[in-house]
Amino acid sequence: MLGFALISASLLWVTASWPAHHFPSERESDEVRSAAIKRLLEVFGMDDPPAVHAYKQPPQYMLDLYNTVADVDGVTKDPYLLEGNTVRSFFDKLHSEQVEFKFNLSSVARSEKVLTAELHLFKLRPQLYLTFSRHHFCQVSVYQILDGSKTNSTQPKKLLSSRLIPVHSTGWEVFTVTQAVRSWMADESSNLGLHVVVRTLGGSQADQKLIRFASGRHHHLSKQPMLVLFTDDGRRSAALESTSKIYISFNAIATSLLPQTPTSIKSSRTARSLDYGEEEGRSKPCQRLPLYVDFEEIGWSGWIVSPRGYNAYHCKGSCSFPLGQNMRPTNHATVQSIINALKLIRGIETPCCVPDKLYSINLLYFDDDENVVLKQYNDMVAGSCGCH
Ligand SMILES: *[C@@H]1O[C@H](CO)[C@@H](O)[C@H](O)[C@H]1NC(C)=O
Ligand SMILES: *[C@@H]1O[C@H](CO)[C@@H](O)[C@H](O)[C@H]1NC(C)=O
């Protein structure tokens, strides 16, 4: 039923756009399609679809993060869970034998505000012959590598983060490197990478094998060093305010203003014939109905990891008098529905059935550099419908 309704609605729209008896040619409908897809990309903040050559396994951290902030449909579980609206992950480009890392941040827009940056390193199990080492803890420090030609220091580096780590532990260690990333964003050429130094509690440089981190060169993809950026691109929704309490009281007053004879509106033949006719009179009241957006059908399944699609919902139905509280009318809509019902002024239609609460969705996708990005988009799902 719904599918049929959608198809006939789109046919209506297409036929209405062209002169009568002229159906769109293949070329014209292709143009409409590409213009529509381009506009849809703009909604997702992109000029072109990212070129993803080979599907890689997204980092587990990003998958876990996505599942924490979004439900299966991609809808945000809790809008206050993420500080900004974008999380970007980068793999190390250096693959150095030393504990040095470099990340290419060219895909981050200049306008993006860096809220937090984290270096994620996978600490490996200590090598067997070191199991009986007298060291139980080591001091692990992360430095930003500075340009030696610009300072007089013999060791041009800046301490970003430092802490004690048990020698026998294994798993992910996270270091905050926000300062360094902010300076790289301000001046791309200053990005010379990060350097990790491990010292014993006595302060001397520890044996390289005492605490080892997985590198992109020798270890499994799932353990690769990673930089995670929490940013905000500044896109905000015009939040819809809920003032339903006012609606209710005003609705009550408006109803009391109506003519006392209940037959004067509904059963009046002349009023009805002036209205939308029998069909409209029988149409269901304003309500929320499903509308599934399938990324595979749009041709985006190559670069979107999750979700495969989402239910945007749509609002459909009549907003004729009397507007119940369940139709969440604005005061304006209530008055308009009364004017329409009373036929006080010609040409005043019933209010429109539109989304009055919107939710954000999350997209986990590969960008042009094949980095995995999680982004939140506001106002994508109709949470409820109302007469406005
Ligand atoms: C960073 O990546 C971009 C796009 O892939 C590339 O054009 C640029 O040369 C890279 N920069 C460095 C320093 O590797
Ligand atoms: C480096 O040292 C030279 C002289 O040794 C001095 O003139 C210069 O200002 C110093 N530069 C910085 C950045 O400290």
Automatic annotation (TrEMBL):
Pfam families noted in UniProt: TGF_beta, TGFb_propeptide
One annotated Gene Ontology cellular component of this protein: extracellular space
Subcellular location: Secreted
CDD domains documented for this protein: TGF_beta_ADMP
UniProt keyword terms in alphabetical order: Disulfide bond, Glycoprotein, Growth factor, Secreted, Signal
GO molecular function: cytokine activity; growth factor activity
Keyword Secreted: yes
Signal peptide from the UniProt entry: 1-17
A biological process from GO: tube morphogenesis
Family label: Belongs to the TGF-beta family.
Taxonomic superkingdom: Eukaryota
Domain TGF-beta family profile: 269-388
Membrane is among the record's keywords: no
Residues passing through the membrane, by range: none
SMART domains reported in the protein's UniProt record: TGFB (SM00204)
Protein name: Anti-dorsalizing morphogenic protein
